[in-house]
Specification:
Blueprint lengths: L44 H4 L8 H4 L3 H10 L8 H17 L3 H15 L5 E4 L1 H6 L7 E4 L2 H13 L4 H12 L9 H17 L3 H4 L6 H6 L2 H14 L7 H10 L21
Helix pairs in contact: 3-5, 4-7, 5-7, 7-8, 8-9, 9-12
């Protein structure tokens, strides 16, 4: 059983406004409210939090703490809740502020970000693994929770009640600490993954929301990136399955003089032919 992240001043709804009759037999929301709270799956929340085509704020907000509680406590499957939660926040931020819930939402999202970045794990697929998934790639590396972190930060950056927390989170990642400090390598790895996201250009629509902040200045600081890379090299193993991630990162940032950088002749070739 997943506990709601906080309480709301509204009861569980018995019906939705349903302007498009989506709860009719055969409709996409048929039987939605007959399901017990503990039995909802992640996909249900796309409908439960739909304040555009299905519910009014006062009806749907009951399910927001359930979704946030599931997001924080759940495994990888729960990460798909980031999308419906983000849409709900964008459409209801004034009502959440009015009801005194914005701060509770912010604190929960901040806790999620801290949980997701407490570890740095990479899922690696070699050529055969990519072929099995239908990917025409030599290899693929995905950082666990990367997309959830980026999407959550982008949503928070859009909304004034949550933007300061998003900035504080990124400033904390960028802050330098003595090499070898507890958690230093993990935080530095996450900072470099954010820098990688920014510099690769694929996530520019997210990073534009941080325009004119020190976050982007830090992401463009080559010397800062080099110091964080040194912290990662000192505290995280740079070999399989992270070898290709590490090699690609150092090439992207033009960093040399580190284990695994292009000038390191003692490091095994991390990029398959």
């Amino acid at each position: 059983m997943t506990e709601p992240a906080f309480a709301v001043p509204y009861p569980r709804p018995t019906t939705f406004a349903d302007p498009y009759n989506s709860m009719r037999p055969g409709g996409y929301a048929e039987g939605l409210l007959a399901i017990a709270d503990d039995d909802y799956e992640e996909a249900h929340f796309h409908r439960l939090l739909d304040v555009v085509d299905l519910a009014r704020y006062e009806e749907a907000v009951y399910f927001l703490p359930l979704a946030l509680g599931r997001l924080r406590a759940g495994g990888d499957a729960a990460l798909e809740l980031v999308s419906p939660i983000s849409l709900f926040l964008k459409f209801t931020w004034l009502e959440l502020r009015r009801d005194g819930l914005a701060e509770k939402v912010r604190d929960t999202l901040d806790a999620c970000l801290s949980d997701w970045t407490a570890k740095f794990r990479i899922q690696h697929w070699d050529r055969d693994g990519c072929r099995a998934k239908g990917w025409r790639l030599r290899y693929c590396d995905l950082v666990h929770h990367r997309q959830a972190v980026l999407d959550t930060l982008a949503t928070m950056a859009q909304l004034s009640d949550y933007r300061p927390a998003a900035l504080a989170f990124l400033y904390n990642l960028a802050a330098e600490r003595p090499v070898g400090a507890a958690g230093d390598a993990v935080r530095s790895a996450w900072f470099l993954e954010m820098v990688r996201s920014y510099r690769e250009g694929r996530d520019q629509f997210r990073w534009r929301r941080f325009k004119n902040t020190d976050v982007l200045a830090a992401s463009e600081d080559d010397a800062l990136a080099a110091r964080h890379a040194a912290a990662v090299a000192a505290g995280l193993p740079a070999f399989d399955p992270a070898a290709t991630w590490w090699r690609d990162l150092l090439v992207l940032l033009w960093l040399t003089g580190l284990p695994g950088s292009p000038d390191d002749t003692n490091f095994p070739d991390a990029v398959p032919a």
